[in-house]
């Protein structure tokens, strides 16, 4: 199978997880709707896709995820109240999410892993390359990772994954890549991938983070991918197959990201992300930084 070189226009966002690390907050509220300052985390992800030119967004959801659809839909009653009050600022902010992109939704059904969630997108994506954005990773808009990944795919074809150097002692929390260099400092050729290896077995300290630009050939590979770690269909295993045999629809390249990334999948990192983003806001930052500085000095 040859790699497709079509331009990318579609983004897939898996959002079927239960968010158990944030219980009880996520008992009735999807983890993707937890606020990061004053926007739900999922809106940052959709905004990133749109900024990269991907205005067709498919969200792969599960049970109790209806608030995601409501957030990106119109709320005519609320809009009318704000319009009658003459509150144009809040009206604009409410309408932002519903005007962002053309949104589509599909239910994953059984929670069979990230690879299965991506496979659920096949009827919508078809025979086109597409991007996958995981909601736990927020990429600062000043560091256009997805645009860089699209450019690498334009040059090399196949699939492109985002990689980030991590402390070798933490590599067991990620997928790890075996790589070789290219003529571009931030681009590597991927020869192997291992999902959550032990520290001793990790091929490198380059961790896969939640951004992928995938050739549609990945769907055929996923259909033949047996459940792996945790009894789930792992996207990493399918990408490993593509990297090992580029004739299936490869090659696989990686972009080594050295920009600003906010991890909202861990409670501590979620809080740190809120503080960092709030400090950088023009409307909140000055007062918040003053308060934070005084608080830290008092507690030390």
TrEMBL record:
Enzyme Commission code: 2.7.7.9
GO BP terms: UDP-alpha-D-glucose metabolic process
Reactions mediated catalytically: alpha-D-glucose 1-phosphate + UTP + H(+) = UDP-alpha-D-glucose + diphosphate
Annotated Nucleotidyl transferase domain residues: 10-274
Entries under Pfam families matching the protein: NTP_transferase
Molecular-function GO term, any one: UTP:glucose-1-phosphate uridylyltransferase activity
Keyword ATP-binding listed: no
Keyword Cell membrane: no
InterPro entries named in the record: GalU_uridylyltTrfase_bac/arc, NTP_transferase_dom, Nucleotide-diphossugar_trans
Keywords of the record: Nucleotidyltransferase, Transferase
Family listed: Belongs to the UDPGP type 2 family.
Protein name as catalogued: UTP--glucose-1-phosphate uridylyltransferase
Organism (species): Streptomyces oceani
